[in-house]
């Protein structure tokens, strides 16, 4: 305590003004200089402290605060220098200088290690270049994002407007469910999109189709690669062929597995392929039939001629011999009819083609059938229809429809013999536009349908469901030949199986004259 009092004792000391001989110019030079320096020192820490408090994100804020304390101490030493010009408080001045020295040393010790880090800080030019690169990267990312959105929109449009049925299936705990389907899927299967999405295949598809799809989905997941297969469905429109493709998609971030599928109807393609094979086969059969008919015509004619002469020379009492000759003549005429049909099978149906209304020819054939079968108690009905211009020969189309009507009549009568109470109806309809660019002539009967034993070969020559001696098996092949000559085809199917009105439906599909002309021009 005595040493502190001695340090602060000023009795034996003189102020610095004595050293300056109290010369005013010297005094005020020191006063003004130290005062201005002290004020400047004390203003700088205020700025630094405000900056450090408001910008806490600045690097090393504690160094700024330490530097502010150092400057405050330096300013205090200058103010004490002015004070000691008149008051010899050198002990206080020394203490302040000691504090300033301590803060200065601490500041220096703290700043020197920071020097490499401060030098490593990027310069404004570096920051400008980095900012420019960042801006460029942001612009590129935005452009890539716009391209991605555009690509996504195009893919969405492709998904929505593609004619093939597209669907995405998700593997859920309970099994496979539709995550999304496109409008073509809803149109083909006759389902609503809102009810299909989130539902299992069994809720949207027929049981057989759903079961097959489940099997193929499991096989695709097990194989881990694309699978495709073809399937068929039978309906009122006949047999339809489908080509299905399943592709496994990579699992998403949540591990959910999805499958992308597409379904395309290839009925027309398979029909064209079958037509090519069938055309070649029928050409061979036609050539063979033409040759057989040519070679057999003369012997048959000679047999008939001599049988007729032999019958004319028989005595009136030779009834048994006369009956034998009549049987020979009857079978000869039947054989001649068969040979004529074989010639028709080999003839080209296209010469002499002209544009005409198919409805007129069909109506004429229906009227002929009505008059001819008036006593058979069979209802033959032609449904309301519009005009259907086609190209070909009206007589041949009428002949083709009559062949179909005769087959239906025979089937209805055969069923009536087995089931006397069975309905006896034949309905003919003409629908333009039922097939794209074509007209469909449909003959539907209640004859019970085609037996399964001959169904696969129903349209082949010499195949018939009638009893031996009752049919030649050339009626439907002749219809097919006429249809092909007009650029069309014949299709058939059994319908209403298991019900009283069960029967067969034959569809004669012909191109409209305008559509055929447009296709030829293209």
Automatic annotation (TrEMBL):
Q: Which Pfam families does the UniProt entry name for this protein?
A: ETR1_N (PF25487), HATPase_c (PF02518), HisKA (PF00512), PAS_4 (PF08448)
Question: Catalysed reaction(s)?
Answer: ATP + protein L-histidine = ADP + protein N-phospho-L-histidine
Q: What is its EC number?
A: 2.7.13.3
Keyword annotations: ATP-binding, Kinase, Membrane, Nucleotide-binding, Phosphoprotein, Transferase, Transmembrane, Transmembrane helix, Two-component regulatory system
Q: Which Gene3D superfamilies match?
A: 1.10.287.130, Histidine kinase-like ATPase, C-terminal domain, PAS domain
Q: Which domain of life is it from?
A: Bacteria
The Histidine kinase domain sits at 291-514
| InterPro entries xref list | ETR1_N (IPR058544), HATPase_C_sf (IPR036890), HATPase_dom (IPR003594), His_kinase_dom (IPR005467), HisK_dim/P_dom (IPR003661), HisK_dim/P_sf (IPR036097), PAS (IPR000014), PAS-assoc_C (IPR000700)
Residue ranges spanning the membrane: these are 27-51, 63-86, 98-115
Question: By its UniProt entry, which SUPFAM superfamilies does this protein fall under?
Answer: ATPase domain of HSP90 chaperone/DNA topoisomerase II/histidine kinase, Homodimeric domain of signal transducing histidine kinase, PYP-like sensor domain (PAS domain)
Residues annotated as domain PAC: 227-278
Name a GO molecular-function annotation.
Answer: ATP binding
Q: Which NCBIfam families match?
A: sensory_box (TIGR00229)
Q: What is this protein called?
A: histidine kinase
Q: Which organism is it from?
A: Roseicella aquatilis
